[in-house]
């Protein structure tokens, strides 16, 4: 099981690397999807690893290093290449802060005792922040020669700074165990419904909006759900 989990983690790294290459080629749709699929693989590798009777410290460290590349570096470069053609100091500074916050978030996670992470994480997970940036860009992906809205760089930078703050905050966000506790025996049913909706929105070319809304719901409501779950324990 640990080998399979590490293979899935490595696949997530490959997708992060592919996103970087696509961003440099200005193939933004593929770059966005590479990050979003990496988010799914990151959730899957964690579930596979938990089925192993022996925990793997190597797998934990590998997962964190891959998360830095796939959900820290890749979304930052994707956002910069999409919105800016020339060097802008403030944009570079904001995206570096985002990257630094993702590294700090993962370092704090690695040293936090598991007993404190029963059904939640401290700080917004890097997977959620990376997926949110990628889905935001997926909404506005463009062909060469089409101008972006004039306000988009400001909105994007505000989103980057918000995500950077939330990653290093003490806000509590649901993990998969918390989600299972919340949904009970209906987890598979809701995952099926979610999968169907995502497929439909993909064919309707509205996938970016749907995925961004899902991440937004998680970002806004998850801390309140965690508080409610823990008050019932």
Topology:
Elements: H1 2-24, H2 28-50, H3 57-83, H4 89-111, E1 120-122, H5 126-139, H6 152-168, E2 172-174, H7 176-183, H8 187-203, H9 207-231
Antiparallel strand pairs: 1-2
Helix pairs in contact: 1-2, 1-3, 2-3, 2-5, 3-4, 3-5, 4-6, 5-6, 5-9, 8-9
Going by CATH, the architecture would be Up-down Bundle
Topology-level CATH name: Four Helix Bundle (Hemerythrin (Met), subunit A)
Radius of gyration from the alpha-carbon trace, in angstroms? 17 Å
Please trace the helix and strand order, writing H or E for each element: HHHHEHHEHHH
What shape does the CA trace take? globular
Discrete helix count? 9
Strand content: under 5%
Strand order of the largest sheet: 1-2
Number of strands: 2
What is the number of independent domains? Answer: 1
Please write the CATH class name.
Mainly Alpha
Helix content: over 70%
Mean pLDDT: 82
Q: Which structural class should the secondary elements be placed in?
A: mainly alpha
Largest sheet: 2 strands, antiparallel
Distance between the termini: 31 Å
Report low-confidence residues grouped into runs of 5 or more: none
């Amino acid at each position: 099981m640990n080998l399979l989990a590490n293979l899935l983690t490595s696949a997530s790294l490959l997708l992060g690397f592919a996103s970087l290459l696509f961003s440099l080629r200005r193939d933004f749709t593929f770059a966005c999807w590479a990050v979003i699929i990496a988010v799914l693989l990151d959730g899957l590798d964690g579930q596979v690893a938990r089925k192993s009777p022996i925990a793997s410290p190597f797998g934990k460290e590998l997962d964190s290093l891959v998360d830095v590349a796939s959900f820290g570096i890749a979304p930052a470069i994707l956002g910069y290449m999409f919105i800016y053609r020339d060097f802008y100091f403030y944009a570079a500074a904001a995206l570096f802060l985002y990257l630094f916050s993702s590294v700090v978030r993962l370092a704090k996670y690695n040293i936090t005792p598991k007993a404190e992470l029963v059904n939640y994480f401290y700080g917004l997970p890097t997977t959620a922040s990376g997926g949110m940036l990628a889905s935001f860009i997926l909404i506005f992906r463009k062909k060469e020669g089409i101008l972006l809205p004039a306000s988009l760089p400001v909105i994007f930078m505000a989103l980057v700074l918000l995500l950077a703050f939330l990653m290093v905050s003490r806000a509590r966000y649901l993990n998969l165990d918390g989600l299972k506790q919340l949904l009970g025996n209906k987890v598979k049913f809701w995952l099926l419904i979610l999968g169907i909706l995502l497929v439909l929105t993909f064919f309707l070319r509205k996938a970016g909006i749907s995925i961004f809304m899902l991440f937004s719901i998680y970002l806004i409501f998850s801390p309140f759900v965690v508080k409610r779950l823990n008050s019932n324990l």
